[in-house]
Amino acid sequence: MILDGKAVSAKIIDDLKIELAKKSTKPYLAVILVGDDPASRVYVRNKKKKAEYIGVRADIFEYPANVEESVILEKIDELNDNPEVTAILVQMPLPEHISKEKVICRISPQKDVDCFTPENVGRLTIGMEPYFYPATPQGVLMLLDAYDIPIEGKHAVVIGRSNIVGKPMAQMLLRRNATVTMCHSKTENLEDIIKTADIVVSAVGKKIVRCKMVDKKSVVIDIGIYRDSNGNLTGDVDFEEVEPVVEYITPVPGGVGPMTIASLMYNIVKS
Ligand code: NAP
Is the pTM of the predicted complex or chain greater than 0.85? Predict the structure, then answer.
């Protein structure tokens, strides 16, 4: 069965819109965008558009690539202190002369809808409630829940250990009582480990998961998204050969991508 992230996401977003329409106070999203990376511009514009669709006020604060670090840090201070602003996003990547760590640490954890700050990541790790869960892993769990796919007691293999995807994905699956194995580029016998998984979550950006690694009970979640040599959007899973074999699978595009947006909108409404 194909897990339809597009449909589940659309339903979540429409429910959020209805919920927000009933509220007397609205969230206010502030997005900081530095430089003119075309992909970042598209991401930021899409987030603003979606936020406005559900009734959120959203502003983008744009800076040239050569802006001084202090200007960005002062802007974050101002947004932290502004009681009207409920959610702050800083679009990554930042130019090299700006410290990503300093920027992340400056954001108020109560407005950190990306779950980037050490406080929120720490809370996630020690079993406390973070103010917000990270968008992509939360989106994956929302999708599994939408299809009533059990997580507790299952062996989940997470491939990829980035701070924004792989690591929090593993933490969140652990919190849901999965038995979690984390894999990365130095993992030996990756194929054998994937074969032992009930749930495979791949967040790499390369073709990793093939049909010989899965079976008819496998749940396969493909977070990866990149362009192949022909310029087509693709994921980490060989969809053509894996889809007929497994129980559940996410497509790329139309799987985890739209769920990430829905999950971010959920966080913004929560803010
Ligand atoms: P990243 O920071 O580049 O991390 C990639 C991870 O993959 C690293 O941990 C790396 O291991 C591991 N890796 C690389 N080659 C491997 C191999 N051959 N076998 C096993 N592991 C390998 O990337 P990211 O930001 O986490 O993103 C991963 C993918 O998800 C990308 O395609 C990205 O576009 C996509 N993504 C999608 C969404 C969405 O909403 N759908 C959101 C975020 C990201 P090391 O740590 O050892 O280097």
Answer: yes
Share of the chain above pLDDT 90, in %: 100
pLDDT (tens digit, 9 = 90+) per residue, 143-172?
Answer: 999 999 999 999 999 999 999 999 999 999
The answer to whether domain 24-109 and domain 135-257 are alike in fold is yes
Q: Whose CA is nearest to atom 22 of ligand 1?
A: 185
Report the side by side order of strands in the sheet with 248-249.
179-183, 155-159, 199-202, 219-222, 248-249
Which CATH number does the domain 24-109 belong to among 3.40.50.880, 3.90.180.10, 3.65.10.10, 3.40.50.10860?
Answer: 3.40.50.10860
Could you list the beta-strand ranges (E) of the chain.
28-34, 57-63, 87-90, 155-159, 179-183, 199-202, 219-222, 226-227, 233-234, 248-249
State the CATH architecture for 135-257: 3-Layer(aba) Sandwich (3.40)
Mutational test site, ligand 1, from 42, 138, 223, max ligand atoms within 8 Å of CB: 223
Q: Whose alpha carbon is nearest atom 41 of ligand 1?
A: 257
Task: Write out pLDDT tens, residues 11-60.
Answer: 999 999 999 999 999 999 999 999 999 999 999 999 999 999 999 999 99
Is the CB–ligand 1 distance for residue 257 below 6 Å? yes
Residue 11 is a catalytic residue: no
Distance from residue 192's CA to the centre of ligand 1 (Å): 20
